[in-house]
Amino acid sequence: MATPSDSLSPQFRLITFPVSHYCEKARWALARLNISYIEERHAPLFHRMATGRVGGKSVPILIAGAQVFTDSKDILKYLDTIAPETTKLYPCAPELLKQVEELEVLFNTQLGTATPIWEYSYTLHNPKLAKRRFLYGVPFHEQALFPLIFPLISSTIRRQINEKAEAVTNAHAQIRQIFEAVGNLVADGRTYLVGDRFSAADLTFAALSTAVVRPPEYGDTALALSNLEQLPPKMAEEVRVFREMPAGAFALRLWRSRAAVS
Ligand SMILES: N[C@@H](CCC(=O)N[C@@H](CS)C(=O)NCC(=O)O)C(=O)O
Questions:
Q1: CATH class label, 94-259
Q2: Which of the chain's ends, N or C, has fewer CB atoms near its CB within 10 Å?
Q3: Contact (Cβ atoms closer than 8 angstroms) between residue 182 and residue 220
Q4: Cβ of residue 20 lying under 6 Å from some atom of ligand 1
Q5: Does the Cβ of 17 fall within 6 Å of ligand 1?
Q6: Whose CA is nearest to atom 2 of ligand 1?
């Protein structure tokens, strides 16, 4: 039987940062569909040449033949149109669909924006950690130029995330708030956030929690992420606390199931 990968895989390109929770959303959806694709990893700032060439700005960008999707939500929606019934990420029932879409937007706009502020408050001050985070699998010339360009990357990101002590505290509180809300949802013992099937809500929550739960299954960038011994002690302690929250345990469980489809 033909699968989406048989007929479409040669046409798929994904432009990414090596470690990026929004990019992980796209990778996870592609893996779930068993679609093979070429991943083009870039370091920050260098990515703009690749994304600009196809009319985008941020990563991930999925190029599927003649179509270009410049937002992780659009990527998931598109992939759902080619997914077989059994792996669809969005339910058909309008009430369930509404719940999934609302959770996806909540995670995208609140969890997805808070975790980088929290994480960068540690990694941007630690060139060794930053190097591992930004350079895994990027082209050689980007690795070679990275030491020269790192101060610019660092100041650009700081400006983008408006790094101030208050912003970091607020981001941490926002992550906790979302984790508490998700913890309340899963307190009834449900397997998935909405209905009885894995959906875009689960995928988005798990992918966007990556930085704070640092799952061992994060694949080839695991070294940059999951070994708490290599993190600053305060950061490692905060990760332990997130992992132990019910929502953290839920995210880690989803990550274990993700390993089964990659
Ligand atoms: N809403 C977008 C957000 C993507 C996003 O913020 N990507 C970050 C990396 S995690 C990025 O590309 N930042 C650099 C830039 O905006 O140029 C999505 O869901 O795809």
A1: mainly alpha
A2: N
A3: no
A4: yes
A5: yes
A6: 71
List, for residues 188-247, the tens digit of each pLDDT value: 999 999 999 999 999 999 999 999 999 988 755 655 667 788 788 999 999 999 999 999
Q: For a pocket test of ligand 1, which of 59, 78, 133 has the largest count of ligand atoms closer than 8 A to its C-beta?
A: 59
Q: Would the CATH topology of 4-85 be identical to that of 94-259?
A: no
In angstroms and rounded to an integer, the radius of gyration of the C-alpha atoms of the chain is: 18
Evaluate: CB of 57 within 6 angstroms of ligand 1.
yes
Quote the DSSP letter at residue 111.
I
Homologous superfamily of domain range 4-85: Glutaredoxin (3.40.30.10)
In which region does residue 130 sit, left (phi positive, over 0), alpha (psi from -120 to 50) or beta (all else)?
alpha
Give the integer Cα–Cα distance in Å for 65 and 13.
9
By C-alpha distance, which of 52, 76, 72 is closest to 112? 72
Classify residue 108 by its DSSP letter: I
The response to whether residue 210 sits with its C-beta less than 6 Å from ligand 1 reads: no
Query: Is 163's pLDDT higher than 80?
Result: no
Helix (H) or strand (E) holding 48: helix 47-53
Cis ω on the peptide bond leading into residue 91 (within 30° of 0)? no
